[in-house]
């Protein structure tokens, strides 16, 4: 935690303590007069101009805390220009004042100030019902490390979610993520979610905006966090309040969806590499092997050098995709299971020998054809057809050797220079 220095400050009908984070002069922590000692749970909530709802939200949190029977703090990360911070502190919440720099960044800023063992996240707009947090606490105490809320397993009040989001956007992106990562979430965009502080630290979030939500889900998979899902109630905006998407304009929701898809694809690039790469490698390699001895007839069609050259391109692209997928999995794996497998399989000495052997055999095939072609006075004769076909396969072996060598260097470099975060390997629900 950052070194802190404090001095008294008088607010509106309440005495607070202002603490400045010495590591970042832009952050200021405001403490309520009656602060909670040694909380087990931290309710950590970003806010931006929520003076209409913040008092009700803090009251809801206190009701939920009391019903759950847990010692908890309420920490609001506030970038408002209105009275949100003042009202929150007056009602008993801690407030971390930050510049306006993104929803994901708000959680990154908050981490040094979180005291609880468990973290519960959400919105300060009273759309998620924080009067009922018992399911989250129960899952934490059963050993869960990441607890996702699900509006579809719970309830959605009429008018709370636009039809486009409810029936298209959220189900579609949730389905895409489940297919890519072999998970079983029902609502990946639910803002009400919980995580252990240890798990949150190990995630090392980098997303600055809305895509933090997808990054959290994806890293929970990469870290092997014990995950569960609980029902939550989703309510419509209170009278007089517009959602942040509505304030930003019609494009805001589409932009949020797009950057969340980007996060899914970037953190799951191996999905687009491993299976397609293996298929292309197989589709290209079969004709290369079949035509190794020369042309063949299939019906009335002759398959010869043109087919081999096309197969060479397809198989080379497939091999590159497959090896890139290996590199991606080695890089993404933060608990070491796949990384150890690939580092072991791509052992430096062994794979350098294999790569050199591929290149050597390929060069021999090329030299045999070049020598025979020169002996025939550079005339393509029928006797050279088989050697010509073998020389194309030799090109593939050379490409294979070079790509394997480079990929081995990358896998070994990741093993040396990218640290493992470490985690208890656990099975996802």
Compact summary:
49% of the residues lie in helices and 16% in strands. It is an alpha/beta fold. The strands form 2 sheets. It has a 10-stranded mixed β-sheet with strand order 1-2-3-6-5-4-7-9-8-10, sandwiched between helices. It has a two-stranded antiparallel ribbon with strand order 11-12.
* Helix-strand pattern: EEEEHEHEHEHEHEHHEHHHEEHHHH
Helical percent range?
Answer: 40-55%
Total count of strands = 12
Counting copies of identical and different chains, the oligomeric state is single chain
CATH class of the largest domain: Alpha Beta
Strand order, largest beta sheet: 1-2-3-6-5-4-7-9-8-10
Give the count of structural domains.
2
CATH level-four homologous superfamily name of the largest domain: Spore Coat Polysaccharide Biosynthesis Protein SpsA, Chain A
CATH A-level architecture of the largest domain: Alpha-Beta Complex
* Proportion of residues in β-strands: 15-25%
CATH topology of the largest domain: Spore Coat Polysaccharide Biosynthesis Protein SpsA, Chain A
Q: Name the overall outline.
A: elongated
Low-confidence stretches: 1-16, 423-429
Mean pLDDT: 87
| Helix vs. strand class | alpha/beta
Biggest sheet layout: 10 strands, mixed
State Rg: 29 Å
Number of helices: 14
Descriptive account of the structure:
By secondary structure, this protein is an alpha/beta fold. The chain folds into 2 domains: 4-267, Alpha-Beta Complex (Spore Coat Polysaccharide Biosynthesis Protein SpsA, Chain A), CATH 3.90.550; 271-417, no CATH class. Helix content is 49%, strand content 16%. The chain has helices at 54-68, 84-90, 103-110, 134-141, 163-181, 197-203, 212-222, 244-248, 251-267, 274-290, 305-332, 337-345, 348-375, 385-417, and strands at residues 4-10, 15-21, 28-31, 41-47, 72-78, 94-97, 118-121, 146-156, 193-196, 227-234, 296-298, 301-303. Helix 5 runs parallel beside helix 9, helix 11 (305-332) crosses helix 12 and helix 13 (348-375) packs antiparallel against helix 14 (385-417). The longest helix has 33 residues, at 385-417. It is elongated and about 95 Å long.
């Amino acid at each position: 935690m950052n070194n802190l220095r404090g001095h008294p400050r008088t607010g509106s009908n309440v005495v607070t303590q202002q603490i400045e984070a010495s590591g970042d002069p832009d952050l200021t922590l405001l403490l309520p007069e009656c602060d909670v000692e040694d909380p087990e749970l931290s309710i950590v909530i970003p806010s931006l101009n929520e003076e209409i709802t913040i008092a009700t939200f803090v009251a809801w949190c206190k009701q939920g805390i009391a019903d759950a029977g847990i010692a908890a703090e309420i920490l609001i990360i506030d970038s408002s220009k209105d009275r949100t911070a003042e009202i929150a502190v007056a009602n008993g919440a801690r407030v971390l004042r930050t510049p306006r720099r993104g929803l994901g960044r708000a959680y990154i800023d908050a981490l040094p100030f979180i005291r609880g063992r468990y973290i519960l996240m959400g919105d300060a707009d009273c759309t998620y019902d924080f009067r009922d947090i018992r399911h989250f606490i129960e899952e934490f105490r059963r050993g869960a490390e990441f607890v996702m809320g699900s509006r579809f397993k719970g309830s959605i009040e009429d008018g709370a979610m636009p039809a486009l989001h409810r029936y298209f956007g959220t189900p579609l992106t949730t389905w895409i993520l489940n297919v890519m990562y072999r998970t079983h979430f029902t609502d990946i965009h639910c803002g009400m979610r919980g995580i252990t502080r240890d798990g949150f630290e190990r995630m090392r979030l980098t997303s600055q905006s809305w895509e933090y939500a997808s990054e959290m889900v994806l890293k929970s998979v990469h870290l092997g966090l014990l995950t569960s899902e609980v029902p939550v109630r989703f309510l419509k905006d209170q009278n007089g309040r517009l959602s942040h998407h509505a304030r930003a304009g019609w494009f805001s929701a589409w932009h949020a969806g797009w950057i969340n898809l980007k996060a899914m694809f970037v953190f799951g690039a191996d999905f687009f590499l491993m299976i397609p790469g293996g298929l292309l490698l197989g589709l290209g390699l079969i004709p290369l092997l079949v035509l190794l001895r020369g042309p063949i007839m299939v019906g009335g069609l002759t398959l010869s050098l043109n087919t081999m050259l096309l197969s060479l391109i397809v198989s080379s692209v497939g091999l590159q995709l497959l090896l890139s997928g290996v590199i991606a999995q080695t890089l993404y794996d933060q608990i070491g299971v796949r990384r150890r497998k690939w580092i072991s399989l791509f052992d430096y000495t062994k794979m350098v020998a294999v790569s050199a052997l591929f290149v050597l055999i390929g060069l021999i095939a090329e030299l045999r054809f070049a020598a025979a072609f020169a002996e025939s006075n550079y005339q393509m004769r029928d006797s050279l057809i088989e050697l010509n076909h073998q020389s194309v396969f030799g090109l593939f072996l050379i490409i294979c050797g070079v790509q394997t060598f480079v990929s081995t260097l990358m896998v070994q470099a990741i093993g040396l220079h990218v640290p493992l975060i470490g985690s208890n390997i656990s099975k996802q629900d």
